[in-house]
């Protein structure tokens, strides 16, 4: 089955499978990583902040391998220095979406910290939106434990950002590592969901830092992918934080996920 092609409009019929380049860092430079993504079958990648240092070079490398880059990860400290450089770089490299990595909080169990983060992200989302770039929050392991508000931290973050353009890229693997129910959270935060990281969890944290090739771990992806689509996800980013063989991880994961693309898979009944 052919892999999906990037469409920046996030229309209901469009599904994007990208490869997070963090997973490929063990292969060396950017060109080696992009070449491995192509060989595995991907037609899109998710870039990292360092790749935007020279946006014209990034765009040229992507064009050389006929890859699109629908999204990029940026750290909160960089955004707080001013979003203009990131916005300009994304426009030059044709990257329509930016997702903020888990941000450093003084106390991840203090709801006030989550609310402050949500307020700041909401302001940034408006600035990005004015230039035609989508901004979203990418969760880590924190944010899924009940706080003294009776809500979880990630709920306080989006509550504080209510009414803004801020979206959510759900890292399904980290939700599971936080002992959360990924399907339940996809439903609970569906108003913000636009994208999902497809990261499989292993039973032994001492093996590959607790991660697995997609389809080889504990998560039931046929259900989770359909649930994510049902509640708004239109892009899916494949990731493994520490694959022993990055190229083989990409190949196996793409082969597994390809069977779920299209009307018989992601659009099928849950």
UniProtKB/TrEMBL annotation:
Gene3D superfamilies from the UniProt entry: Divalent-metal-dependent TIM barrel enzymes (3.20.20.150)
Protein name as it appears in the record: Sugar phosphate isomerase/epimerase
Signal peptide as annotated in the record: none
Coiled-coil stretches noted in the UniProt entry, renumbered to this chain: none
Record PANTHER family: HYDROXYPYRUVATE ISOMERASE, INOSOSE DEHYDRATASE
A molecular-function term among this protein's GO annotations: isomerase activity
InterPro entries linked to this entry: IolE/XylAMocC-like, Xyl_isomerase-like_sf
Species annotation: Neorhizobium huautlense
Keywords, in A-Z order: Isomerase
